[in-house]
Amino acid sequence: xxxxxxxxxxxxxxxxxxxxxxxxxxxxxxxxxxxxxxxxxxxxxxxxxxxxxxxxxxxxxxxxxxxxxxxxxxxxxxxxxxxxxxxxxxxxxxxxxxxxxxxxxxxxxxxxxxxxxxxxxxxxxxxxxxxxxxxxxxxxxxxxxxxxxxxxxxxxxxxxxxxxxxxxxxxxxxxxxxxxxxxxxxxxxxxxxxxxxxxxxxxxxxxxxxxxxxxxxxxxxxxxxxxxxxxxxxxxxxxxxxxxxxxxxxxxxxxxxxxxxxxxxxxxxxxxxxxxxxxxxxxxxxxxxxxxxxxxxxxxxxxxxxxxxxxxxxxxxxxxxxxxxxxxxxxxxxxxxxxxxxxxxxxxxxxxxxxxxxxxxxxxxxxxxxxxxxxxxxxxxxxxxxxxxxxxxxxxxxxxxxxxxxxxxxx
Length: 411
Known about the structure:
The protein has 411 residues and is α/β, with parallel strands linked by helices. It folds into four domains: 3-61, no CATH class; 68-177, PTS-regulatory domain, PRD, CATH 1.10.1790.10; 180-264, Response regulator (Rossmann fold); 267-410, Mannitol-specific EII, Chain A (3-Layer(aba) Sandwich). 57% of the residues lie in helices and 13% in strands. It has helices at 2-8, 15-22, 27-40, 47-65, 68-90, 98-114, 126-132, 134-151, 159-176, 191-204, 216-220, 252-277, 289-302, 310-320, 369-374, 378-387, 389-396, 403-410, and strands at residues 181-186, 208-214, 229-232, 243-245, 279-283, 324-325, 328-329, 342-354, 357-366. Helix 2 packs across helix 4 and helix 13 packs antiparallel against helix 14. The longest helix is centred in the middle third of the chain and has 26 residues, at 252-277. The radius of gyration is 30 Å and the shape is elongated. Residues 3-12 and 117-121 have low confidence and may be disordered.
């Protein structure tokens, strides 16, 4: 910092600024310190620089007067606005990352309090950050906009480096937890009992991430999109789905219920991932189910998801026993002809003769060996879900395929 001031001498004397600094408590003390620094390091500081250093000392004193929790609380509304805007603009939810919120709050508080002085990074360059961490850099620009709106403070380009590093760290944390089931604990007992439940569940189930533990009152005020399911010791109002009620002692039956729910959640996550990259098409003028299958496999071929023998394996499977269930068909081929697991869902406007029924919706599933080995029960679970009567009746009424509706119907 001293080197930057000596080389740049950017802080010119301003009468209004000087007057404000002279009115600061302990100005004389700060002035003596600055004079000693100027002499010791032979800085040849201008008067404006000296006053600015006095200002920095006053800010540091003010900064240290607040502890970390107070700084976090003070910045809480702004942090929430930042994360909300990131979620809306970039479709990534960081609300449950407490480490990010704490680190960002303290960093922003210190930055704003410094009043515009930036310490240059000797390790990172902004061009490197943009190239290596473009997503994190976008988050930093969103943050800068919100800070400018709330505090009229405009970030320098160099200051965006440190913001980007905060966000990239959060992104890395999110990646490491991507495959884990997110669980929220709701407990009506004291902190000691809550901590015991949290630690027991962590020790028993290694593939879950506990995103928080809250009282019923706090839970009811929370956003409801930050977890996969809830484990609660007390009945929750208006919560009929995605809740497992357990004894505070976590009995054997509780463990079995949690295990079953974890498997269900894993299946749902996998289905959601397949749907996100899946294809949804409408087919007209198909006279046979073979015509339908050819159109659907074309989608897989375009994405290089299957090899050239996959279509034959699907048709041969249908010849053994058609996969229609009333007005829905669930054809599939051999896994060794699948390059990448995929799903194609087709709506046949006029229907097509399929076995002994007329089919309007076709779910063509291509699961590779890796998926089936890692999730041996997924195919059977998927098939059973589609085959359920309530799912059938609901799907039959869908003229267009809605991803979210499908997930809701099946899980």
